[in-house]
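2 proteins. here.
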Amino acid sequence: MGKTSTKGIWKVISASSMGTMIEWYDFYIFGSLAVVISTKFFPSDNPTAAFLSTLATFAAGFVVRPFGALFFGRLGDIIGRKYTFMATLLLMGGSTFLIGCIPSYETIGFLAPLLVLILRLLQGLALGGEYGGAATYVAEHAPAGQKGYWTSWIQTTATVGLFISLMVILATKNVLSAEDFDSWGWRVPFWVSIVMVGVSYLIRKNMDESPVFAKAKKEGTTSTNPLKESFGNRYNLKFVLLALFGATMGQGVVWYTGQFYAMSFMKTVMNVDSSQVDELLGIALLLGTPFFIVFGWLSDKIGRKYIMMGGMLIAVLLYRPIYKMMYETTDLKNKTEIVQETKQVVETSKINDSIVTNQKKYTDGTTLTEKKTYTKNKKEAQVNTSISINTNDEWTLIFLIFVQVLFVTMVYGPIAAFLVEMFPTKIRYTSMSLPYHVGNGIFGGLLPAISTYFVTHSKEAGKPEFYLDGLWYPIIIASICFVIGMVYIDNKNKTNHL
């Protein structure tokens, strides 16, 4: 492939990135609002079970991503990259909008979580077809020797999509009262999606097909059965399995630990105020995102392997110390309470309920707020604990999340170029999409639910450092991937078909 003009490649990057970023926004708005959603679409009598059910529904979208990769990957290798990822964009946007329209559990009962699950599965199918198309499309436009750099712009879209989802939530919370946000305002971020999808569709509609695919189609060398050629061919299947177990499996758990599990851990284990967590994560993501480009560019110079493997190894070694430091930063046992009268404010919520709020303040500026919800017969139903932390603790947590985001950029920045270079043009969309979405969708997507379950189980068992047990899952998976990748991946990537 010859040199591509910078002007042309920037047009491709802009159109591809915007659409992919919106799809990630759509996909992650569900996770960003998991704590709220658990109270709307699931029975409220057991908050822990409701939250775990929400995480399971969130994970369901990841589980079906490989099926989306197979279905849309096949279409992408037969009819083209452009039209396939336009279809995934519309499917994703429509599903996201409709989730924001579903009545609550109190209104329609078990039909609510069922409808959410169906739409979540459609989201997963759509995302399964989007990423492979965007990464392939950009790589096939990129100049030789610069594929790591140019595809790394696509790699930023997942983090940017998460960042924008957090910012939209914060903006909505700031505009509305707490009562309005809890009542109906949480639906606004879902509704906003439809506008962004419409704009992105108009931009993508005017894009040209990938020149590499267009050439293959003109010469009649496209695949008639991409699934058979991808997975029925033993030689190609070997590279599919290597991509999964030697790269994307570990990359997936590092990605979701550093961003989603960090957010879930602070909200549900550390009990830090939800809006404060969104702000901290947003700042850390903003600081860390440029490093996707840095490591993508560096992978063009020194190879993809050692950057990705290095990210996994450092993450495995540092996760437990990092999360221990995070937990101890806000642990009230390490703080001194200001001796004062505890104020109790009774608020009227529903006709038969009352809420008693207790507040404690600490010498370093930390505030603990406990809200106890009572039913009509004064039986205690639920205790909601929220900690507002001081500025010093905020910056400590921002730094610790930022370090985890750096691990993410190391494993994720070069991965798109690494994957597209492994497979020939006629089956590239299908072949790269499956290992990517199994690694990220199955191994990565299940992480928040599995790790939260481990923490909950260890806490109930009375273990002293229960909060660290959720890390065993990403540590074990990343360690296995590191060993396989170091042994079998060729840093020079002699399988380059571009």
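next one coming up
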Amino acid sequence: MFDDDALLKKIRDHFQLPAFAGLNRVQHEEDPDDLRIVYKATTADGRSYAVRMMSNPYSTLEDLAGQASLCGLLSGGGLNVPSRLYGSDGRPYLTLSWNGREVWATVETWLPGKEPESLTIALAEQAGEWLGAMHRLAGQASAPIPFTSGSPWSLFGPEDELDQDAQALENALRASAAEPLPVGEVFALYRQKRSKLRVCWPKLPGGPVQGDFSLNNLLVDENGRLCGVIDFHLAGTDVFVGHLAGEASFLAYAADKEEGAETPEELGDRYLNALLSGYERSRPLNTRERSVLNDLIGVRRAFACYQVDDVLGDLKAGRMEQVNRQLQRMLVYLNKDYCPAFPR
């Protein structure tokens, strides 16, 4: 429990806040390498803040400063994102010792709104508009925003999670009784598309991104319209179209499954198209970005982490018929033309 009065006083003093009139815990996740505690704190004057205590191996103090700068940039551009508070030493964080571990505390404004119950076509389109606006504003920043790493969607870096998942799956499939022909086809296509993307990657525009544009970080108003984006703790530097492809594919899988669709990928296509349409209204893609988007979405959908986990689970359970069906689905994702109007 985060109920240490002395610790709370240190946080209040550092961020020059009055005493808290109310304090409600909204999140507490803790393991040996990762701590995340979030409270909604209300002061006597009626203002509300998100008070966070965190510790993990992938963030640095420079990243915390970058998160605060990115929030300030986007807020200044008219987007409703949390504003980080700066402390008495001019920093947007405070380092502390808690339960024998070093942690940092941040405080940001609490945004009104609620998490949407499901993703709709209209909300996907609005999400695309916001994501495009975020990328546009980030690309117009007058000075670089410091981050020590990329976003979770970054490709071709030391933390390329997509390639790590793909390699783990290939090794498992090669050692299994899966049909060798589709296995070979899947990974030949994957490597072909990655090779094309690697050549273009250094020439694509990029900058700081929020990094976790998932459904639980979107806020909607009483009419179900998008009214805020929260949670910048995975922010980092990325290629904008790569981030777009990752977030769009992720949100497509998060969508409710509509009745009447002929194939599973048809469901995701509707949400992808809506999000891409909204994105281009805020930030039209350039010719080079358009030329790589189809391959990016293909590899993202074929090797989504949760899909890889499903195939590995079927392999472990010996459900080879299901594994072979999944391989055929991956081939559909890799071969599909998601952007028929875009140059290939």
